[in-house]
Amino acid sequence: MTEIKATNITWHEGHAGRAEREAIVKQKGVLIWFTGLSASGKSTIAFTLEHALVERGHLAYALDGDNIRHGLNKNLGFSAEDRTENIRRIAEVGKLFVDAGIVTCTAFISPYLADRQAARDVIGAEDFVEVYVNPSLAVCEERDPKGLYKKARAGEIKGFTGIDDPYEPPTDPQIEIDTGTVSPREATSLIIGLLEERGAIPPLNK
Ligand code: ADP
Asked: Model pTM greater than 0.85?
């Protein structure tokens, strides 16, 4: 846990609660945390899921690694320390989104177990669904949509996850998806099924 630096600050409790907000949107706030190697398909699935949920009339929002690094986290690089701070901020933002009643999808490599555990602790285990997007490294490298693996193999990028920086796989993810064989649509259906089971969203036609 990062210490609070500021002194003379007091938590101010709001007057409208999460349950009241959730009643308005007829869903429960939840965080779908996608983790996996670069090019494993996290963003593709997160955005497909967001779209499918919004089309069904739900409030959903995808927070994507590269997008967040253009704004909120533009001052962070890829050192272990910065990766940890990247995930800490996302977890805190995700917590606010969940409190707002939003089905939130986060797509970050989030390679370190301890960082993902810290995110789970910040958000609360009951609101945290870990999705391990797990095609083989060979599949990711073959896709290489941004040419990053090629650069990493050539030594032009240092500290690239899966090549010369570790990826620590989840030990007990709620869902594991091998995108080598499962399409983004199929992955989305799987996750929507889980959200229905958990009562985060009502089943269709109810
Ligand atoms: P990540 O967010 O994990 O870095 P992206 O979603 O940005 O990965 O990139 C994954 C690439 O793999 C995209 O070009 C996507 O079109 C492709 N792809 C091929 N098959 C799949 C699949 N079954 N699921 C997700 N992405 C897939």
From this structure: yes
